[in-house]
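Hi support team,

I submitted a single chain yesterday and got back a structure, but I'm not sure I'm reading the C-alpha cell output correctly. Could someone confirm the output below corresponds to the sequence I sent? I've pasted both exactly as they appear in my results page.

Thanks,
R.
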Amino acid sequence: MSSLGGIGKKFEEFRGKKYAIPIGLVIAVAVSTLIVAFLMDSCLSVILIAVLAYAIPYYFGLKNRKKLALFGVALFVLLGFVLAATYFNAYASYPGDQINSEDNVLVNGTVAPYKADASTTFTFSVLLVEGNASDQVWANVTSFGLGESYSFNQTMMPYESTPVPGGQMFVLNKTMPTGVYQYHFASFHGTSWHRSNTWGLGPLSLSDETFFGELLYQGMIRVWLQIATLFFMIVLLTWWMESSKKRTEDLRKRAEEGGSKKDAGIWGKRKDEKPDVKKRTVEKLVCSECGAEVPTDAKKCPRCGEPFEEEGELVCTSCGAKVKESDKKCWNCGKEFEN
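Hi R., thanks for writing in. Yes, this is the structure output for that exact sequence:
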C-alpha cells in the first residue's frame, strides 16, 4: 500500500509540471489514432475514443473547457485523415471478390481489374455450371457511397461458343464512370432462376487522388457526426456539473456566513452588509397598561407612570434573552413557555 501511495504522490507531482499537459495530449492523440486505425468498426470504439479524448488530457491537468474543445477540434480533423487513410489502404490491398449462387450453378463471379481509373475497360465474368452458349446470364452492377450514381443490368456474352470444362463462361466488358461499384449475377437456367447469394465489391473506377478525397469526405462526416458530437456533449455536461457544484458551494458558504433567516433577520439585504447584532439582541419590556416600551431597569412606566412590581428573571432557553417569570412567551424569539 505504501508503494502505491508513493506512486500516486509522484504522479501528482508530475501533473504539476509544465510538460504534463503536452504529454497527456500526445497520449490522447496516439490512443485515439490506434483505435481509429484498428478498431473503428467495433461498436464501442466511438464511445471509447470520445471518453478517452476527454479523460486523458483532463487527468493530465488540462481542465479548461475551451482549451479542451480546441484540442478536440484539432484531434477530430486528424482522425478524419487517419480514418480515410485506413480505408484507402484496406481497399487498395483488397484482392477482390469471387461470388457464387447458393446452389452453385453460378460460380467464380468476379471483375477484373479490381481497381483502375475511369478510362479502363473492366471485365465481369462468371461460370454457369452445365450451361451452354444458348443460356442467358445477366450482370447487375450499381454504384454506392462514393463517386457518381450509376447502375445497369446487362446481358453477358458467352466467352466461347463451346463450353469449358464444368460449364459455360460468360463475360461482359464495360467502361465505368468514376465511382465505387458492387455487382452480382443472375441466370434463368433449366426451369428456375439462379442468383448470386451476395454482392461482390468492385470495380473501383477512379484515380488514387479522387478515391482518397472521397474517403476523406466520408471519414470526416463519420468522425464529426459520431465521435466529435459525443465528445462535445461530455465537455458541456462536465462543465455544467462543475458550475452547478460551484454555485451550490457558494450558496452554502454565504448561508453559513450570514446565518439562518430566523437568526439573522437580514434576508433581502446586500450580501456585503453585516448583520446588526446589537439591534437583534436589545432587550425590551412593554408596559401592561399603555403598551409603551420601557427599559428593563425602569421602576415605573415613563409614559403613564404605572409602577412595576419586582419579580424574578429567567433566561429564554432558545435565544438567551432575559424574561420575566410571568411572561407566557419570549419577547425576542417568540418561544412559548410552559407553566
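A quick pointer for reading it: The chain has three domains: 2-93+214-243, 106-206, 282-339. Let us know if anything else looks off.

Best,
Support desk
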